[in-house]
Write a structure and sequence with these properties.
This protein has about 400 residues and is an alpha/beta fold. The protein folds into 2 domains: about 90 residues, no CATH class; about 300 residues, Alpha-Beta Barrel (TIM Barrel). Helix content is about 30%, strand content about 20%. It starts with 5 loop residues before the first strand and ends in a 5-residue tail after the last strand.
Length: about 400
Amino acid sequence: MPDRHLLILRDVLVPRVLVSDPRSFGGRLDGSCLRGDLHADGARVRLHISAASDAPRLVIPALVEPHCHLDKCHSIARMVDVGGDLSQALARQRQDKLNWTEADLIARATRGLNEAAAAGCFALRTHVDWGDPAAPPLAWSVLNGLKQDSPLNVHCAALTSVEHMADPAYCDAVAGHVAQANGALGAFIHGQPDIAPAIANMFDAATRFGLPLDFHVDETLEPLSGLEAIADAAIACGFEGPVLCGHAVALINDEGDALARLLGKLRRARITVCALPTTNLYLQGRVAGTPERRGLTRLRELRAAGVPVIVGSDNVGDAFCPLGQHDPMAALSLTVLAAHLDPPFEQWLSMVTTDAAAAIGIPPPFVDQTSVENLKVSAAQTLPDLLAGRAPLSALLRPF
């Protein structure tokens, strides 16, 4: 009788960069991929060399959404006068919070979670506005409740303005609530004065509570240095947990020796930078006519310097981005166009899979190390087709 626990997928292509041990994985080299019949027996996934077909399919790990805002998503329809810079978006979203009832939050966040799952995600980090009080906001309770029944591995990150973290008692209170939810400690850094003590408090609290750190930092085309302050703090205390810095748009102003020095600090601090193209292309660089400067960090320079770079969806259908979608592959596709990330495309796939997972503190889902439940298959036969979204990702869990 056939083995009921054996799953076989005939003639697949697996990007070699998404396999931790290509030599023992099996298959034969086909361009940048390993090709063969995929055999999955329990937790063990391997390729067996077989005859090629006319229509191989791509197999990759499920995606990771490292940065989104489920408390804000899909609120755009009830807003007016949207379309401006970051400060205007903050004001519009603040007004909309008057509508944030439990039922409203559940409906919008559930829609967002379902969209991320349909896009092929298995893990997601959502930021939650915390505000001034040290007590968790309603959205924090709602989202941590929703994650109990979600098929996704959902992590919530507290998001407050960094100056509040200058109060050690406040910082510890937030960190304590975050630790109970297995979340991340975060803050918004945007040119506030004297931020070093607040950042130091966050690193100290994260160390004591065993928390990852996640910052919204330098979300502007104006020169700011929040990113360097974070790197300095991480190096000074020898922080070992993951540190994720989203946006970092102001880095585009640095060049030459100054840029090289900062990139060296980021590498030493083991900081990951997350590009968020949909929101930052929409908000940054606004002028009377067509924008001349675009909201992107120095992705190519960061990667060349050995600093991990990833991509997230950020805002979806709210004051910060009226469009967008909860789909990391779509965000990567936009990043390819906006940042001129040229082929071969396998070099960028880790930005929404393995590197994105490590950045939020979960094991990288290499094809030969993750569970079969965390593998996705696409009818796309090339990586350009996959990134272009010409064939959706679907679950692997059915025999072929």
